[in-house]
Amino acid sequence: MSDDVVKNDAPTSDAGKPDVAKGLEKTQESGLTPGEIELVQGAGADVEPGETTPKVVGYRQGMFGAKQGGDTSGYGLLRRPVLVAGETSRPYGSFFDEVADALERALVGGSASFGEAVAAVVIDRGEMTINVHREHLVAVARALRDDPALRFEICTGVSGVHYPDRVGEELHAVYHFLSITHGSRRIRVEVSCPEEDRHIPSIVEVYPANDWHERETWDMFGIEFDGHPALTRVLMPDDWPGHPQRKDYPLGGIPVEYKGATVPPPDQRRSYN
C-alpha cells in the first residue's frame, strides 16, 4: 500500500468505537484536507460558547463514495470520515437564543419539557436547526405557532432525507418555519425515525397547508405520517412499488438504441471488477 492512502481500519477508542481523532496529522497520509483534520481533532475537545461540535456519522470509501461497480478511479483505498454539524453550545447568537428560551418557556406544563422534547440545537452557516424527538413533534409545532414570543405562522413544508448508513435514524423529516410577526425569522425542525419503524406524527392539525407536503414525503421516501387525514400518493400512481427518492431505490431507466447498438438501463449495466 502506498503512503498516501488511508488504511481501512480506523483507530478505536477504549469503548471500542472509532476514534477518528487519533493518529491523524496534517499530511497526505490521513487522506483528509487540513480543514477536515481540524474538525475531527476538535470533535472531542472542549467547545467554546457558540461553537458547534462536529459529528462523525460514518466513513466514505474511495473518492466519491460509490459502493457498486468496483473502483476505476485509483482512490479505492481512501477512507474519510463523513462529518456533519453537531450540537451547538450557548450562546447561539443572533435571534436563536431568544427562540430557544421562548420555546423552553412555551413547553412548560405540556406533555414534555424542552429537555425531553429537543434532542439538540444546531447552529450552522447562520441557520438554526432544532432536532426534536418524534413523539413530541406536534407539541413543539403547536408551541412554535401559538406562543406570542415565537409566532411561526407558516410552515413552508416538509422534506424527506434518506441516510441508509445511519443505523436507527435512516429517515429524516425536515420542516421549515417562517415567522411574519417577528420580521421573517426562519428556523428548521428535524425529526428522524428508524427504517424498521417509519412513523412520524402528522402536523396537519397544526399546519393544515402541510397536507400535500406530507403526502409527497410519504410518496417519495416512505415515511408514514400518523394522523394524516388522507396519506396517499401525490406524484406516483397508487400502485407504484417503492419510494423513488430513497437511496436504495433502483435506478431503473429504459435501454437506448443508436446506430445498431444498445445501451442498457443504468441498473443493468456491467460492473467493473
Automatic annotation (TrEMBL):
<dbReference type="GO" id="GO:0050136">
    <property type="term" value="F:NADH dehydrogenase (quinone) (non-electrogenic) activity"/>
</dbReference>
<comment type="function">
    <text>NDH-1 shuttles electrons from NADH, via FMN and iron-sulfur (Fe-S) centers, to quinones in the respiratory chain. The immediate electron acceptor for the enzyme in this species is believed to be a menaquinone. Couples the redox reaction to proton translocation (for every two electrons transferred, four hydrogen ions are translocated across the cytoplasmic membrane), and thus conserves the redox energy in a proton gradient.</text>
</comment>
<keyword id="KW-0560">Oxidoreductase</keyword>
<feature type="compositionally biased region" description="Basic and acidic residues">
    <location>
        <begin position="16"/>
        <end position="28"/>
    </location>
</feature>
<dbReference type="GO" id="GO:0048038">
    <property type="term" value="F:quinone binding"/>
</dbReference>
<dbReference type="InterPro" id="IPR037232">
    <property type="entry name" value="NADH_quin_OxRdtase_su_C/D-like"/>
</dbReference>
<dbReference type="GO" id="GO:0005886">
    <property type="term" value="C:plasma membrane"/>
</dbReference>
<dbReference type="InterPro" id="IPR001268">
    <property type="entry name" value="NADH_UbQ_OxRdtase_30kDa_su"/>
</dbReference>
<comment type="subunit">
    <text>NDH-1 is composed of 14 different subunits. Subunits NuoB, C, D, E, F, and G constitute the peripheral sector of the complex.</text>
</comment>
<dbReference type="GO" id="GO:0008137">
    <property type="term" value="F:NADH dehydrogenase (ubiquinone) activity"/>
</dbReference>
<dbReference type="Pfam" id="PF00329">
    <property type="entry name" value="Complex1_30kDa"/>
</dbReference>
<feature type="region of interest" description="Disordered">
    <location>
        <begin position="251"/>
        <end position="273"/>
    </location>
</feature>
<keyword id="KW-0472">Membrane</keyword>
<keyword id="KW-0520">NAD</keyword>
<keyword id="KW-0874">Quinone</keyword>
<keyword id="KW-1003">Cell membrane</keyword>
<keyword id="KW-1278">Translocase</keyword>
<keyword id="KW-0813">Transport</keyword>
<comment type="similarity">
    <text>Belongs to the complex I 30 kDa subunit family.</text>
</comment>
<protein>
    <recommendedName>
        <fullName>NADH-quinone oxidoreductase subunit C</fullName>
        <ecNumber>7.1.1.-</ecNumber>
    </recommendedName>
</protein>
<feature type="domain" description="NADH:ubiquinone oxidoreductase 30kDa subunit">
    <location>
        <begin position="130"/>
        <end position="253"/>
    </location>
</feature>
<feature type="region of interest" description="Disordered">
    <location>
        <begin position="1"/>
        <end position="32"/>
    </location>
</feature>
<dbReference type="InterPro" id="IPR010218">
    <property type="entry name" value="NADH_DH_suC"/>
</dbReference>
